[in-house]
Amino acid sequence: MGIKERKEREKERRRQQIMVAAKRVFSRKSFNKATMEDIATEAELSPGTIYLYFKNKEELFASLSLRILHYMNVRLEQVHNEKHQKPEQKITALKEALYEVYEFDPIVLINMFHLQSSETLKNLSPNLLSDIKDLSRSSFGSMAKIFEEGIKKGDFIDRHPVALADIVWALFSGVVLWEESKRLIDSQKDFLKSTLEIAFEIFSRGIRTYPEPAN
């Protein structure tokens, strides 16, 4: 291994060290309360070293979010590309895929919801912001295609598929954030999966087409 390759490997190792420390800090203190100094302490590095790799807290967290966005993109593509499922079955598969995304990394996902609904995205570098937008656009595209397929087959009501995808994302993020807030009050209450089951059941009934009643 040459000197250049060794330096690159060391740089990536240090970057991963910082991201692991950041995830622990975000878990304990939440994104809003955590500071770069907290992360530096957790990583046993100086704050100056942290800033060599990430220009701010938002960029550090967004880098963590890329991993879960990649996973979500893969899972939603799998649901869309399933050839042997009817559109209605794909709604069930979509619900299961989104729950798996939650289970993949709950802390990062929850903080990502907060990040996407704030002004902090403006603090990201153009390349990182572009990666986030591309992955998000691809994931929403896969969801929209599921609804588009169902509309074309006459199984779903004729509404804009992107709007239906937006509603699913709002439903998913809203249920996750609400159930997590309830768990802060009572950690024994974990109704996320069952609440998502009900929410998707109501949603799928709402977009389904029904035959005209016989006269």
Short description:
This protein is mainly alpha-helical and 215 residues long. 78% of the residues lie in helices and 0% in strands. It has two domains: 1-54, Homeodomain-like (Arc Repressor Mutant, subunit A); 57-207, Tetracycline Repressor, domain 2, CATH 1.10.357.
Explained architecture:
The mean pLDDT is 89. α5 packs antiparallel against α7 and α5 (87-104) runs antiparallel to α9. The chain is mainly alpha-helical. 78% of the residues lie in helices and 0% in strands. The chain starts with a helix and ends in an 8-residue tail after the last helix. It is globular and about 65 Å long. The chain has two domains: 1-54, Homeodomain-like (Arc Repressor Mutant, subunit A, Orthogonal Bundle); 57-207, Tetracycline Repressor, domain 2 (Orthogonal Bundle). The protein is built from nine helices and no strands.
Indicate the radius of gyration in whole angstroms. Answer: 20 Å
Question: The CATH topology of the largest domain is what?
Answer: Tetracycline Repressor, domain 2
CA distance, first residue to last residue: 80 Å
The top level CATH class name of the largest domain: Mainly Alpha
> How many β-strand stretches?
0
Shape: globular
**What share of residues is helical?**
over 70%
CATH architecture of the largest domain: Orthogonal Bundle
User: What is the total number of structural domains?
Assistant: 2
Order of helical and strand elements: HHHHHHHHH
Arithmetic mean pLDDT: 89
Helix/strand/pairing category: mainly alpha
